[in-house]
DNA sequence: ATCCTCCCCTAC
DNA sequence: TAAGGTAGGGGAGGAT
């Protein structure tokens, strides 16, 4: 799959130049008539759809879009009309239509693709006494039904429909459900909402266009239509997009031939008068006889339209809130989880993990099976097949719609009229119009008005990917998965098998099995086979024999080489290098000097078709992370903390899912650039600075709670206004397999902090005793008991022990307390390794950060600056009490110093002091013992010195 | 010289 | 409205 569709498209354009021995099963090149299509189709109302002979129909439209209507169409239309009448009549006679004729007097024209389909809507009209027009007539049609329309269609509707209501199909559905004709007003198409009230404002006071009843009806039924409204507005729920496909199948004829063009039988009038007349007619259905409209109605209309818009944004739980309330980080507590469920990039990014689980034995690589392909013995030539599905996302969703094969189709999240969704994948007919992955739907529709938009179907992608790999594994043992739709096959060892024939067989099987086409490249190494596939696309295959490599590469644009993205391309262009041939002129030294050792060598090799990689080199996972750079908008630190918490849970789950734990953690932040305005992309991150901080902890972890503490600490380093954050990511690296860490959970920092160090082991006092112990009375308590001591009234923060932390050995539900903040030596705390600081900070409920504001990046942290200003004692000099007010409340005895031994990031034992009380506690004990031992050693040294010196003197 | 951190670039 | 992720590789520069 190519996320950069321009790449594929450009290769199509180059096809004739760069194809060698190409076997293409798709002889008709879609790019041939590209220019022609662009010049003709875009200005018409989807003429391409039904046009068997595009040029003729287009020319007639170009000549006069709506007046030059042949007698054939008049005849055909009449015939269809009669046919509908006959059907309606027969169904009523046969008793099929026993329903209330709620649509009597209504005549709909369904324009474009709708859910439900035009045919289904026709069925409803038939059943409930309405009419369905196959072709648009301003005199017969009363309502235009559509889900969305491209801008040019909107213009045409505005010009020629005489102000007919343009409403969404849910109006029909909801009316049927309510068994009465509902007001169409709330169901107006959003694209026309801002326009229609203006018309209504003009007419309503005079003609009672929208009655009070209609308004009341709308208000009362507000909630009833909301649910379906949203579904209609965009797409079926994610995960259920096949419903969409099923529905479309029933109306394929409509899509192809009837629904697309607005055909007007009569000469254009297009005057304000006709507009007025039509709307007055409309009011017959909407006002239902009530003409008693108050003067303020006019002003209410605008509000109504706004209200209607809000209702479209119904959230999934049916709450009367804007969808936007739930589509960004601040308002949706499940934002992170939902986001990943719906992210196509997340799907692509995590596919490999799923593949590894699905094909555990096949995805481990073949490290020992052979060596470098270039080192193979004898004259055996390496043979690599690269196989890649064509426009995967689109192919999969339209695989059951052969009628759409040659129609422009794209996949994206939403076909909302606003058109601010991003095209993810476009098929080749769409690419011919300039539709590319990454452009907005509205731009895509401007380029290609009749573009069909499908939603994602991640389940189907997964399913097809599995079929794809089953076929590959069936034919070849050495398969290296690149992505869900792309793989390398080393077929060198398949003696007697012609690689080209094999590729053909595999492609054929893929098509038979999945209904999707794949392209293949065959060559002597991975680089060349991959390049060959680009040439072969779509639905073809290409073999590059060794002799042709130089010719092939000579004119190949450098951007085609893997590893050369837009940045490297620009850099090379500045050096007048545009093709591989030009790249070859530069020496390896020059390239390495300009681009670095590795990159320089890669450029030198690739420009000569040299690639030393071999199929099957699967590396161990080096990092696991989660990142969200969309919809991130925080209003306060609580939002950001909640978000970080969700992110930690996500990363924790991913680590656990992979059976690894991380020792190094990197927090990435996207910060809005100073002058960056709100991005064009809805909820996008826009122009950002990318910041990151990382820390390494002594013990690897996958514990969400620990991650949260670490992340909190990392987050503190940024010292950033949360309102400026546009994206956050957390990545774990220095991964260690859990297999090798069985039982190591007991060594986690959290556990360690809560446990009694072996060297401090003392007879434990029961929890009840601790709980009952008076505040400040810590006599004879072990280290964890000190940490767990009840001092809540002093510190104001308690640390709730996680019930899941069974390894801690603490009683579940026990609420431990910790030494009060005022008892800490901040000079020491401040200089703790970040991970320990993070842990302590969490234990103190995040208050430590506030108490010791600091930034790792700033050598002169706030707290240390404060300390210096106040002339407090340094760590070496003794304890520092940060809060003078609290200081006065504490007795001298409580100011005794204890040393807590803790593991530093280098696994060394480092002392840091915590103020605890009273003096007789194990820390003091330990300290005194240490002091005595140290003194003893010093004494011995002195004694020895005293003893040795005189000897020397003598 | 080597390692580490903080980036950036790239591919899918 | 919409869902701009994930992971690997590598370069620059600083610390050791």
Explain the overall architecture.
This protein is α+β, with helices and mostly antiparallel strands and 954 residues long. Among the domains are: 71-314, 3-Layer(aba) Sandwich (Rossmann fold); 623-746, DNA polymerase, Y-family, little finger domain (Dna Ligase, domain 1); 748-932, no CATH class. 44% of the residues lie in helices and 12% in strands. The chain has a 6-stranded mixed β-sheet. Strands 14, 15, 16, 17 and 18 form a 5-stranded antiparallel β-sheet that branches. A 4-stranded parallel β-sheet has the order 3-2-4-5. Helix 9 (170-178) packs antiparallel against helix 13, helix 29 packs across helix 30 (597-607) and helix 32 crosses helix 38 (834-843). Mean pLDDT is 63; it is low at 5-77, 93-97, 158-162, 194-325, 367-375, 743-820, 853-925 and 949-954. The chain binds a DNA duplex (12 and 16 nucleotides) through helix 18, helix 19, helix 27, helix 30 and strand 14. Residues 19-32, 52-63 have a biased composition (Low complexity).
What attributes characterize this protein structure?
954 residues, alpha+beta, Rossmann fold, Dna Ligase, domain 1, six-stranded mixed beta sheet, five-stranded antiparallel beta sheet, 22 strands, DNA-binding, DNA repair protein REV1 isoform X2, IMS_HHH_1, membrane, transmembrane
Describe, in short, the structure shown.
Residues 1-63 are annotated as: Disordered. The protein is an alpha+beta fold.
